Amino acid sequence: MSHAVIFVGENSARAHALTYAKSLNCEKKNSGCAAELAEKKFPAETQKNCGECLSCRVFESGNHPDTFFVKATKQKGIGVEEIREQIVMPMATKPFKYAHKVFIIEDQCTPQAQNALLKTIEEPAPYGVFLFLAQNTHGFLPTILSRCVVKNIKGEFLGDADFLPLAEEIFLALQNADIPQAFALYKKVDAFEKNDLLRFLDTLYVIYGKKIRDEKIFFLDAPKIISDTKKILSQNANTQLALELMFEKLRRNQ
Ligand SMILES: [Zn+2]
Q1: pLDDT class for 74, splitting at 50, 70, 90?
Q2: How many CB atoms lie within 10 A of CB 14?
Q3: 151: region left, alpha or beta (phi > 0 left; psi from -120 to 50 alpha)
Q4: What is the DSSP letter of 98?
Q5: Rounded to an integer, what distance in angstroms lies between the CA atom of residue 154 and that of residue 254?
Q6: DSSP-derived 3-state class of residue 69
Q7: Where does 207-246 show beta strands of DSSP type E?
Q8: Crossing angle (nearest 10°) for helices 239-253 and 222-234
Q9: Which residues surround ligand 1, an ion (CB under 5 A)?
């Protein structure tokens, strides 16, 4: 198992890392057995999490006791102090409750900070997992890079220009729980031809990915809700039913 992963991407790297972090501690998926998970290879970023167990639910609330977000407080990036205080020291103690202690390192680390982190990554505690978010790998020291799996969220689709305004409007309507507005927008979407509908859903997916990344909001389930809907619609399901369900789930997920 790789305990250190760099998620490289413009829009959805954060969403992918969060899904991964959530899955690592999902109680139903792991049955609480870290050893079993360690046997497996690095799983796809789309790996399953149940969304229902206590771990998944506290993760979604943003208060997971074994998930840590490390951010830069200075412009030059995450420094040595932050690495020591927020990663190296906490790593000395076991997870509070779950199988893994997951550190999501959201900003670039300075070279000195990476050196300070090196030993912890080279000889990790069995429960330690490090997830880096980056736009590219240029800023990483070779010593760190060689210890990490690089997960390129590449060829990222940035949204279909034809559908971006509508997807934005829908996001806002759902966020504001503006049901009449959401319903009016829903009517527009429901009128789409199949191909347009699928392109629209891809665009909506991008919008949620952006919100998760830029505004650091926990709409963790939104990407999955949208991609599930896309899957269902590709199988010729009842369009209206699938869309209604998606709108309702997205509204509840806010
Ligand atoms: Zn779960």
Answers
A1: confident
A2: 21
A3: beta
A4: S
A5: 27
A6: strand
A7: none
A8: 180
A9: 26, 28, 49-50, 53, 56
Is residue 190's pLDDT more than 70?
A: yes
Tokens coding 209? 């990915």
Tell me which residue of 238, 201, 237, 239 sits closest to 222, measured CA to CA.
201
Q: Give the pTM.
A: 0.62
Write the pLDDT tens digit of every residue in 87-117: 999 999 999 999 999 999 999 999 999 999 9
The answer, yes or no, to whether residue 45 has pLDDT greater than 50, is no
CA of 116 to the centre of ligand 1 (A): 33
Q: How many C-beta atoms surround the C-beta of residue 176 within 10 A? A: 11
Of residues 181, 117, 107, the one with CA closest to residue 139: 107
The alpha carbon of 34 and the centre of ligand 1 are apart by a number of angstroms equal to: 14
- The residue with greater pLDDT, 135 or 217, is 135
Distance CA 186, CA 184 (A): 5
- Cβ-based burial of 253 (10 A; exposed 0-12, middle 13-18, buried ≥19): middle
User: What's the 37 CA to ligand 1 centre distance in angstroms?
Assistant: 14
In whole angstroms, give the CA distance from residue 147 to residue 130.
Answer: 11
221 C-alpha to ligand 1 centroid (Å):
12
Res. 13: pLDDT tops 70: yes
Can you give the pLDDT at residue 217?
A: 66
